Amino acid sequence: MNDMQDKDYPPLITASQITHSFTQQKLLDQIDLSIHANEYTTIIGLNGSGKSTLLRILLKLLPCHQGTITHAAHLRIGYVPQRWLSDGQLPITVYAFLMLNLPKGCTTNLIDQQIERWQLNAFAYQSIHTLSGGQWQRLLLARALMSDPQLLALDEPTQGLDLQSQHDFYQQIAQLHKQGTSILMISHDLAHAMSYSQRIVALAEGQICCQGKPHELLNNPNYQQRFVCAHQDNITTHTCCGNHT
Amino acid sequence: MPEFMLLALIGGTLTTLMTAPVGAFMLWRRMAYFGDALAHTTLLGMGLGIWLQMPLHLSMIMISLIVAISITLLHQRHNTSTDTLLAIAAHSSLGLGMIVIALLPEARIDLMGYLFGDLLSLTTQDIILLALTNLFVITIIYKKWRALLLNTINPDLATLAGHNNQQINLLLALLIAVVVAISIKLVGALLMTALLITPAATARPFSRTPFGMIVGAVIIGQLGIFAGLSLSWYYDLPVAPSIVSFLFATFLLSRALPNRK
Fold it and tell me: What secondary structure, in 3-state letters, does A48-63 show?
């Protein structure tokens, strides 16, 4: 794992004093965060902590009510959203879906390459609605990588995958990171975050409660209290820490 | 073939060429009642058109457009559910339309024609208007095809691909408003949604691509027009209800047949 400092890389995204509310409830409160080139960053947090909202604001998919978001000039972003609900009324094959996302000036060779790379050949002409969780994630990765992104942003990409598929998926993302793609991932999976990330940003109640390298977080009392104890509480109630709020 | 039947056939054909793609997008985006609400608003457009002595098509398009844009913006900005807004818009404009018409005692409106359409009374002028509207609708859909589809599949992916979702939503609202206001003479306000939605829903099980589904919807719509006119000619049945009933039969048949895709 690369231990270089943030300052060695230029920031791809800089968020300054980000605040976002929904029906007068603050979802994010004065967040300062930079995402650097070549970094593998994972944003963790409990349900409702504002992870997905933060990611969508960082990608400028959602406006923030206060604060500023700055992207590096000509930043190319690949985005893997959470699997969305679909009633299957729109008939579209894997190939046609990739075709819709083909960047301007690129030929269909790019689609063929991505289909080959992500082993989508067997169902290239199947409806996207019939894909399994793992096939769906490979399709979204293929789509996101067609623009040759500098930053790959993923929103809980392993949700609903079995353990083997999760492992395979993380290996593929690690491979992409080795090849120079910056990774920004939202995850519930603390084990993944600890094993693969260079930097972990922990969100709680709309604020960054702690951030740093995985080994730094392990010794951080904020992290211990909010994540390790909370996690253990889910398994065995009231067995550790004793400091419940 | 008498001239009025020929005009009806040409008018019906032109109409299905634009209702099929617009109806398909409405089906994909779960906007079936959007068309219904806009069809109701055209009565207000008609009343205002008579009052202001404007061409009726123009006043109907304007009112449909105002309502379509208002619903889209209210939904986006105030997070009010679309079905609530549609119900309010449809029935408020129907009520207001009836009041405007009641205030114009000299106005003679063929309410049955408005409610159920009058395909057999199409004029050459109507055909020209339909042809121009077709050109407009099909050109916009062709030019914005990728943005419209991507926005329908996932708005976030459309944004990252550089498309403006708000503009796309308003554009689709504009297309629906224009198609509804122009096509209402054929099938009427009450049956408008059937012509938009049923052919697309019938084509769905046999389609593998969005374009294929639209082509299927055009063919089914054309069959509906032809069948409706034939039933009217041979059995003296009302045209628009015959078209809608035939389309309903094709829908039932499509669900009885094995799924091909």
Answer: CCCHHHHHHHHCCCCC
Domains defined along chain B, listed by start: 3-188 (1.10.3470.10)
Average pLDDT, chain A: 86
Best mutation target among A85, A89, A151 (most B Cβ atoms within 10 Å) is A89
Q: What is the pTM of this model?
A: 0.87
Which tens digits make up the pLDDT trace of B35-69?
Answer: 889 989 988 998 899 888 888 888 998 999 999 88
Provide the residue type at A63 as one letter: P
Among the partner-chain residues B30, B159, B208, the one whose CB lies closest to the CB of A91 is B208
pLDDT band at A239 (very low <50, low <70, confident <90, very high): very low
The domains of chain A, with CATH numbers, are 10-75+150-245 (3.40.50.300), 85-149 (no CATH)
Least confident range from B11-20, B189-198, B240-249: namely B189-198
Residues of B within an 8 Å Cβ radius of A: 27-28, 30, 146, 149-150, 152-154, 156-157, 159-161, 204, 207-210, 212-213, 261
φ/ψ bin of A24: left (φ > 0), alpha (ψ from -120 to 50), beta (otherwise): left
CA distance B96 to B102: 10
Residue entry with tokens 């930097």: A199
Arithmetic mean of pLDDT, A1-13 = 64
**pLDDT band per the 50, 70, 90 thresholds, residue A7:** low
How does DSSP assign B74-132, residue by residue?
Answer: HHHHH---HHHHHHHHHHHHHHHHHHHHHT-TT----HHHHHH--GGG--HHHHHHHHH
Alpha carbon separation from A141 to A37, A124, A146, A172, B20 (Å, rounded): 19, 14, 9, 10, 33
Give percent of chain B with pLDDT exceeding 90: 61
Interchain proximity A89–B27, CB inside 8 Å: yes
Chain B residue closest in CA terms to A76: B160
Per CB-CB distance under 8 Å, the chain B contacts of A90 are 28, 149, 152-153, 210
